[in-house]
Amino acid sequence: MASITKFILLSLTLCVLHLNFCHGQNAVKAGYWFPDSGIALSDIDSKLFTHLFCAFADLDPQSNKVTISSSNAGPFSQFTKTVQLKNPSVKTLLSIGGGNSNRADFASMASQSSSRKSFIDSSINLARANNFHGLDLDWEYPQSASEMKNLGSLLDEWRAAVATEAKNSGKPQLILTAAVSFASKVDGLYQYPIPSVSRSLDWINLMAYDFYAPDRPSTSTRCHAALKDPSGQASGSSGIADWEKAGVGAKKLVLGIPFYGYAWRLVNANNHGILAPANGAAGPDNGVERYQDIRTFVAQTPGAVVVYNSTYVCNYCYAGTTWIGYDDNQTVSTKVSYAKQNGLLGYFAWHIGADDNLALSRQASQAWGA
């Protein structure tokens, strides 16, 4: 009995000392939200999620500190309190950066230990001041081997800092995550710092979408977030396999699911399958369409047809010369089931506000199960 007790104590000690703190997270059913996303914070059914990301905090390029804009200060400060009214166990994370942030600012910040410290210390202070349970880095994307090396230093120093802060404050250690390219190399060139990712992040959010868009010279319709692709091109499953081959375990991987699609303009209305000839976007904003707007398009457009393609695992709809590739209920259910069956930690959605009355959020939660 004494030897068993000693073994248990030793195991617990190693767990606490390990840089990648044992949060005991069984699954991640997550989604991103931002103030102008189209859904009020109070309307989110947080029972459908285990984690919610609040986006985005900013990086001040002069001070290298993480800041929250004055317009977001109110919603961000109330984020955790509000979503926990419906689900007291939901965990919240403050996401930093985003696709519209300046990647050069992140590269500059990560290049020096002093500026990394400014970033790290300010992020921890902001998270605690606004009652978040964790922090999420969305640097899109490091663009050189040296930037990836600096990212590794940032992640390791961040983990050490949150461990020290938790020890000194007596509070649970902050969760650390990052939104990353769907594959372990950005543009197939720049390898993420795999050892640092594995030991210093609780998980990574694979942005398994935006593989294709009407503005990237392309002459045919494509599913921008296909789970599979028989041609061997970009897909969610190939990204998962690539990260695992690089050395990141499945339990560190969370699969991204888009709640939006892209509308393409068909060259010939009678040729409307995947890879049909197309000549650009059908509509403004490069053809980006929220799921709720796609549902409206289908309901209100005479002759609109919806197709589920099991080979690619994606949906598309068409009417006239408009063709939209997106994720509908069956696609979401298949993707979530795939993630669970392949041992991934979970899934996340970008973004909750694009959903149609939380229909996809419910479908995803149901597909994963308890």
From TrEMBL:
Protein's UniProt keywords contain Glycoprotein: yes
Signal peptide segment: 1-24
InterPro entries: Chitinase_II/V-like_cat (IPR011583), Chitinase_insertion_sf (IPR029070), GH (IPR017853), Glyco_hydro18_cat (IPR001223), Glycosyl_Hydrlase_18 (IPR050314)
A Pfam match: Glyco_hydro_18
One annotated GO biological process: carbohydrate metabolic process
Entry GO MF terms: chitin binding; chitinase activity
Keywords: Glycoprotein, Glycosidase, Hydrolase, Signal
An example Gene Ontology CC term for this record: extracellular region
Domain named GH18: residues: 27-370
UniProt xrefs under PANTHER family: CHITINASE (PTHR11177), GLYCOSYL HYDROLASE FAMILY PROTEIN WITH CHITINASE INSERTION DOMAIN-CONTAINING PROTEIN (PTHR11177:SF383)
Family named by the database record: Belongs to the glycosyl hydrolase 18 family. Chitinase class V subfamily.
This protein's name: Class V chitinase-like
Gene name of the encoded protein: LOC113692998
